[in-house]
Amino acid sequence: MDSFRIGFVSGKLGDVDGVSLEVEKWINVLQDMGHEVVTIAGKYRAPLTLIPEEHQVVFPEIRFDSPSQRHYERIFFPYLNKVPVYLTEEKLKGYVEECIREGLEVGEHLFEKVKDFDLDVLIAENTNAMPMTLLGGVAVHHVATEKRVATIFHHHDFWWERSRFSNNRIETFLNRIMPPSDIGLEHVVISSYAAHILTSIKRVSPHVVPNCEDFDHPVVLDDYNSDFRQELGFSERDVLVVQPTRIVRRKRIEDSIRLIAALLRAYPDLRGRVHYIISLYQGDEPDVDYVDQIKALAEREGIPLHLIAERVSAVRGRDAEGRKLYTNRDVLVNADLVTYLPLWEGFGNALLEAVAARVPVVTTTYLVYKTDIKLPGMRLIEVRDRYDEDGRLIIPDQTLEEIHHVLTHPEERKVRVEETFQVARAEFGLHTLRKRLERVFELYGDEIRASRKRLRKAKRLYSV
Question: Is the pTM for the entire model greater than 0.90?
Answer without folding.
Answer: yes
